[in-house]
Specification:
Blueprint: H1 2-30, E1 32-38, E2 41-46, E3 51-56, E4 63-64, E5 69-73, H2 76-101, H3 105-137, H4 143-172, H5 176-201, E6 204-206, E7 211-216, E8 223-224, E9 229-235, E10 239-246, E11 258-263, E12 270-284, E13 298-306, E14 318-323
Antiparallel strand pairs: 1-10, 1-14, 2-9, 3-5, 3-8, 4-7, 5-6, 7-9, 10-13, 11-12, 11-14, 12-13
Helix pairs in contact: 2-5, 3-4
Length: about 350
Amino acid sequence: MHRLLVVFLFVVGACVVSCNGEKKHGGEEKGIILFGNVDIREVQLAFQDGGRIARLLVDEGATVKPGQVVAELDPTRLQLEAERLEAERKAQAQLLAKLENGSRPQEITKARAGLDSAKASLKEARLNLKRVQVLRVTNRISQQDVDSARAKVEVLEASVRAAEDTLSLVVEGPRSEDIQSAQASLQALTAARNLARERVEDTQLHAPAAGEIRTRILEKGAMASAGSPVFTLALTDPLYVRAYVNEPDLGSLHAGMNVQIYTDSYPNKSYQGWIGYISSTAEFTPKTVETTELRTKLVYRVRILTCDPQNELRLGMPVTVMVDPSGVTAKSPSCQGEE
């Protein structure tokens, strides 16, 4: 009887060990299960400058492409400012061209003629001075006449010197400092003109990436201030899934590994995804993650990228992620080719 009891206990123990081994083996085949939520990135679309909204080209739920115009401000005032600066820039460009070209031949000829005229007048005045000085010796004229003739000679000598300086300036042309100042003014006006044109272009609000309009905040006719959101854009390519992995399973995951994603809304459908990032810092399980593990157990955050061409995944939707450690790693993960 005692021997039969020992044999019975041995058989039961073997069965238990065998069952546990099969369960463990089955768990390995099943892979790692992660729990998380869809984490869609959002962008607040706003104008760089304020103004009155002239047109809103999309509504909530609309799908937009990169660079697509979604709204416009009234550009009238900004266009007028750009035109004014362009006119000023052209005037300054003409002034700079005049300085760089220097004096025209006619101007040089005129300056030389002025100098010749001044010299001729001086020559006549000097001759007149000699005559009045002779007449003064014989007392035929007064000393006042002599003084007047001498003063006239001095005035004309100054005129000759001034005419010589004028001719020299005309021949040499504008000063280099004046040319550099005109160039700097032209550059400043060109920059102001370009900025005005940029502000005109900024009256059109473009989508920075492909996505879906989640919220339409302002309406046509409203005054939008600089930086105030007009739309909220959800970036849907690719989608992010925020999940958490327990420390014992951390060594079985690596970036680029293919995964399958499941939701309660479509239980019979899986979404292809791949691991994009694994946090290097441990943290406590967030309360929003529903797992069967204890809340105080340390986990590591995992970012999983997935594609949703049918637009079935929603922000905050809970998901289950199946990871097969023996699965194939994606060489170039992307959403291209997904339908």
